[in-house]
Task: structure prediction
Amino acid sequence: MFKRKLGRSEIEVSAMGIGCWAIGGPWYEVETGEPFGWGDIDDQESIAAIQCAIDNGITFIDTSDNYGAGHSERVIGRALQGRRNNAIIATKFGFVTNEKTKEATGQNASRAYIKQACEASLRRLDTDYIDLYQFHLGDYPEHKAQEVLEVLEELVVEGKIRYFGWSTDLTNRAEIFAQSKHCAAIQHEMNIFRDNTTMIDLCEKHQLASINRGPLAMGLLTGKYSEVTTVVDPKDIRSRNNLDWLTYFKDGIPSSIMTNHLRDIREILTSNGRTLTQGALAWLWARSEMTLPIPGFRTVKQVTENAKALDFGPLTQTQLQQIQQLLTQSAVN
Result:
């Protein structure tokens, strides 16, 4: 089994995790009613998929307390009954939701709220400790970050969490947490279309896990969608057009630029019998020994395909260079 260390911690994990955003189901922006989820889900299928992941050697499970307004954590707790020791659980805090109304109501990173949020996550996950507790407010002011760090260190001492990290795409924020003894990871967006050399350099410098969210570009890198395919579910976040960071889809329509790029590199990604999905994950592993992709899922079938990527391992450095050359040429043309 292809494994990696979780940063500078003593924790060993599978080289890939599972991202549990989608299995949280629908929740909505309180003011506009627009979706933050990926549409309706089947909890029994989600539970079966999580258990399938563990059966296939995937030990790292990533979620957040706001996914489905807490529902994702509850589903994970149910799936891990009697199997908690087989999993490394990572969750996040900072975005506030109302679990009853399924509404996103704001942000909070006060000392009291972090302690409260941690206790709530422990209850939903049905566990006594969280392996990796991640700050979810990626652009939180630098001058306030020290207080967040202090609270997280207190939670380590209390035994509520083992390690912590920051989910951010900003290296100056990541650098603040990187100085702390119990920081083990930085979660950031990364895939073939959204490389992040500066963050990879930081993670390698400080021996932190580079947890890669969006490794499949919200599904675009699976090959399932083309420029003529639309995501029609109004409960799916990909149907929105008013989020600056949502670059892979607009109004449910995939980026034509990215789908063209994918055609250019398809042959390399599918070499040696890989699927496109498996090739996209292999690219991330080839980028750095610190990377840990967390592809999302909604079905057992998706988890099974993702898990088989572990059998293939990383692309070669030659293939990595070939892909970069093709993407550069395609951008020029």
In short: The chain has a mean pLDDT of 96. The CA atoms of residues 282 and 297 lie 17 Å apart. The longest strand covers residues 161-167. The longest helix spans residues 317-332.
